[in-house]
Design a protein that fits this description.
The protein has 282 residues and is α/β, with parallel strands linked by helices. It has helices at residues 3-22, 52-64, 95-106, 117-122, 139-142, 147-159, 180-188, 210-218, 229-236, 265-279; strands at 26-31, 37-39, 45-47, 67-73, 115-116, 128-133, 163-166, 204-205, 239-240, 250-253, 256-259. It has a single domain (26-279), classed as Class I glutamine amidotransferase (GATase) domain (Rossmann fold), CATH 3.40.50.
């Protein structure tokens, strides 16, 4: 074998390796709310959206691990950030890190014009490796009571692909029952409804805890939210687990990964990347 032949083979091998490194490991769907006005009791509303770190930090973990993100909302519109979440306290007090995550989110393809749920459901769901649902109070508006969200969740549940949701994001899981709109309406009336055919009944999971929700509600100057998510999840049949308020807590059960609060962002991102790695063929 000549030197030229050996050199050509080495270059070809290097190019193949570089190509393998550059190729994305898969696409992860990120489900966000289309809405930004949370209904409160007495007909009032609260401005909301996704929490910056609950979206951006897990997204950062996924991108660094080699995954591509595909954004979807019910309406196919641009999601809103909750302005309260643009705060260094959610980034260990590091304003520079907060700005980095802001820029990362702003640069994501589709951030200003997401796919709609109808478009995603009409496509090939097998194409996606996993699902991420960030928090903020917005999922309470249009993700917890939405049959299209339920159809999406059933696909990932039945295929055993990872579904990760953080803070208020897990409330979206309630859509995967027979009549999620009726369930939520009953909760808002102060009733204790029974979930019908909920695919996550008995799963170990977590969500924004009652003690944490009470702190949020105390900032509303006497106004109140329609129902507490933790009670809704427990009432539906979730096997709930909580850490002390504001401590990171991530619960993994089968394909489901849930994080309790904003400070669970890094742990949830790492758990999702790990679970995606387990699901990939070797």
């Amino acid at each position: 074998m000549t030197k030229i032949t050996r050199l050509a083979m080495a270059v070809t091998g290097a190019l193949l390796c570089a190509s393998a490194i550059a190729a994305p490991k898969g696409e992860v769907l990120v489900l966000l709310s289309s809405e930004n006005r949370l209904p409160l009791q007495d007909g009032k509303q609260y401005p909301t959206g996704y929490y910056l770190n609950e979206f951006g930090v897990p997204a950062d973990h996924l991108l660094k691990a080699g995954y591509k993100l595909v954004l979807v909302t019910p309406k196919g519109n641009a999601p809103s950030v909750d302005e309260r979440s643009v705060d260094p306290q959610y980034f260990a007090g590091d304003a520079t890190e907060m700005k980095r995550i802001q820029q990362l989110v702003a640069s994501l393809p589709g951030i200003d014009d997401t796919l709609s749920l109808k478009e995603v459901l009409a496509g090939d769901l097998d194409h996606y490796a996993g699902l991420l649902i960030p928090g903020g109070h917005a999922p309470l508006i249009d993700l917890a009571n939405n049959p299209e969200v339920g159809a999406l969740l059933r696909h990932f549940h039945q295929s055993g692909k990872p579904t990760a949701a953080i803070c208020h994001g897990p409330i979206s899981l309630l859509s995967a029952q027979a009549d999620p709109a009726a369930y939520q309406a009953a909760l808002a009336r102060g009733e204790k409804p029974a979930a019908k055919n909920w695919i996550y009944q008995g799963y170990r999971m977590t969500i924004f805890a009652n003690a944490e929700e009470q702190v949020f509600e105390s900032s509303l100057k006497g106004d109140r939210i329609l129902f507490y998510p933790a009670r809704a999840m427990e009432g539906a049949g979730g096997n709930m687990s909580y850490a002390p308020a504001w401590n990171p807590n991530v619960v993994v059960d089968r394909e489901l990964i849930t994080g309790q609060n904003p400070f669970s962002d890094h742990e949830l991102g790492k758990a999702l990347v790990s679970k995606l790695g387990e699901a990939r063929p070797h």
